Amino acid sequence: MALIRIITKFAKEHRVLRTVQRRASNICSTFIPEFENHPEISSYDDLYAFSLKNTDEFWGTLAKSRLSWQKPFETVSDCNLSEGQARWFDGGQLNAAVNCVERHAQENPDRIALIWEKDEPGTQVNITYKELHEQTCKMANTLESHGIKKGDRVVIYMPVSPMAIEAMMACARIGAVHSVVFAGFSAEALASRIVDANAETVITADEGVRGGKLISLKKTVDEAVKNSHCVKRVFVYKRTGNEVSKSSLDICLEEQMSKASPVHKAAILDSEDLLFILYTSGSTGKPKGIAHSIGGYLLYASFTQQTVFNYQPGDIFGCVADIGWITGHSYVVYGPLCNGATTVIFESVPTYPDPGRYWEMVERLKINQFYGSPTALRLLLRYDDSFVTKYDRSSLKTLGCVGEPLNHEAWSWFHTVVGEKRCDVVDTWWQTETGGISITPRPSAPGAHIEGGMPMRPFLGQQPCIVGNDGKIQSGNDVEGALCLATPWPGMARTIYGDSKRFVETYFRLSDGVYFSGDGAHRHSNGYYQITGRMDDVINVSGHRLGTAEIEDAMDEHKDVSETAVVGFPHELKGEGIYAFVSLKESIKETPEEIIDDLKKVVKTKIASYAVPDFILITSALPKTRSGKIMRRILRKIAANKEDELGDISTLADPESVSQLVESHKNMM
Ligand code: PRX
């Protein structure tokens, strides 16, 4: 019987694969079986048009065939972008962990779910779907035995590891809402996220390991918990087993899980119940807890993972993002696992032990799709190409990038050196708020051209538009303005946790009936989209969003600081660097150097290392309008060494201050 099952399964997978190869060349660069024989669809353009015109039929069909529902949904969508409201698959009940783990553990127990590429070079750990399921159940039982229940928020502050993914899945199984915090954030940043979510539970590790260095996670959690009185328990996983600080709230995770049952009954949840919160920076105030719900997010993450990357059964999917960011959520964890894929979880950094790390890993693990960041590529292309070419990369089929513009040099290196001009390069545009990829060269018509340096085409079901200064949607091509999305999609964020007013005001007020991304874009004469950068006071450092206000707030707390203004400037490696202009109070005892040092420490302590400004310029005054508003436009030009483009400064209260600033900037460089 078992043999027959294996043969049938093999034949089935093979048949699907052959069909994929045969059909892929028909309508779309990727096989989408649900619409292959649809009477209205005979080309990719038809499929795209159908996805916009028949939104409910399009997404409803996919949701039925791709997700396992405990109770079928009654309506597909109920959305009103004017009100910032979206509901998908109402009436439907499902569980994300059942979809991502349990159903595959039943169908293909021995298939590898996770390949943990540990920090230590050459060390990998394979976890099958059966093992992942059992571990998830043990963790779910552990959490429940400590009183954690549906709707509770659980903060996960962990290294990229199977245990972290089991924690996410265990939360999903019991209906708790996870909030993964990147394990590089400081104690204060972690505390503010714990408090905002009012979380009683934190799951962490003794230490993290990255690039051969130990990171004291538990110590940071202990500090954070001192300032977050809501926390009642801290589960600690032993990543290194070293002696670390202890607190009365600690619970040893492995010990608890070893006693727990590997059998667990998954909670039956509504499609619109929250799956997770993920904090991201905005232009004002504290980071926002972007909230995603179960059904829509899961469908969107998994559908995009399969179709953008042309993932096929048996492929090894390698997204090297950290699970602390949305890319990790959608394309390391939820998207691939929902599709029953084998997903690589990468704990290390691209240059450890040397700049060949990614490509050695590609050869050893036989990775088929590689998804990374422009910053890492810009860093790696500085080294000799032999770090790439000495490894066999013939397994690679699709290369992808996200987080910031992929400049031509990096695109061309990725395409030519890494991909040997064989692989499609997908420059994908999306955000924490979109849940998954929204603009991307693939899928597309078979053989459609890919142009370097831009994400190009809307994903299926997506209708980007450009809103001009007048708040109106621009018609025609060759237009530039605010990048908005005009059609609701299942993966869109549902709210900002605890602040639905801010959600509506931030994303749905620029122009009626569209979602505003915060980015600017140019729609070229051929209709392709190119991102021009953020339009708000958010800067993008190595693909990570940072609000200038967050950094200013941190520095303003220094006793000697009177006022600060932070701007971004073009940075060769990081995309954008951070430049802080700081004016001090009078009669300061410390030297400027000491204050600069202090300020760097303050930012590191309050936010994270990556938020520390590259330059801090101490100045006597900041340029302001007569009404007292800091002229950031001028500061941006100075930081970018474009003092000849300062424009009209006559409206300033003190135009003289500008020449002094330019002078000090030049002296500092
Ligand atoms: O400015 C855009 C930039 O990253 C922002 C979203 O950041 P986050 O929510 O942290 O998610 C990053 C990973 C999805 C966007 O508003 N961005 C993302 N992808 C691109 C990009 N900028 C240019 N080109 C891209 N492909």
Notes on the protein architecture:
The radius of gyration is 25 Å and the shape is globular. It has 669 residues and is α/β, with parallel strands linked by helices. About 2% of the residues have low confidence. Helices cover 34% and strands 22% of the residues. An eight-stranded mixed β-sheet has the order 12-11-8-6-7-14-15-23, sandwiched between helices. The chain has a seven-stranded mixed β-sheet with strand order 5-4-17-16-18-19-20, with helices on both faces. Strands 21-22-24-25 form a four-stranded antiparallel β-sheet, with no helix packed on it. The protein is built from 20 helices and 30 strands. β16, α11 and β17 form a beta-alpha-beta unit. α4 packs across α6 and α5 packs across α6.
What brief labels describe this structure?
single chain; ANL_N_sf; alpha/beta; AMP binding; 669 residues; binds adenosine-5'-monophosphate-propyl ester; EC 6.2.1.1; eight-stranded mixed β-sheet; globular; 30 strands; seven-stranded mixed β-sheet
Please state the CA-atom Rg, rounded to the nearest Å. Answer: 25 Å
Cross-sheet strand order for the largest sheet:
12-11-8-6-7-14-15-23
Q: What ions, cofactors and ligands are bound?
A: adenosine-5'-monophosphate-propyl ester
Assess the beta-strand content as a share of residues: 15-25%
Shape designation:
globular
Portion in helices: 25-40%
As residue ranges, the low-confidence spans are 10-24
Give me the count of strands.
30
Oligomer: single chain
Largest sheet: 8 strands, mixed
Beginning-to-end CA distance, first to last residue:
74 Å
Secondary structural class: alpha/beta
Number of helices: 20
Mean pLDDT across every amino acid position: 94
Family: Belongs to the ATP-dependent AMP-binding enzyme family.
Protein name: Acetyl-coenzyme A synthetase
GO cellular component, one term: mitochondrion
EC number: 6.2.1.1
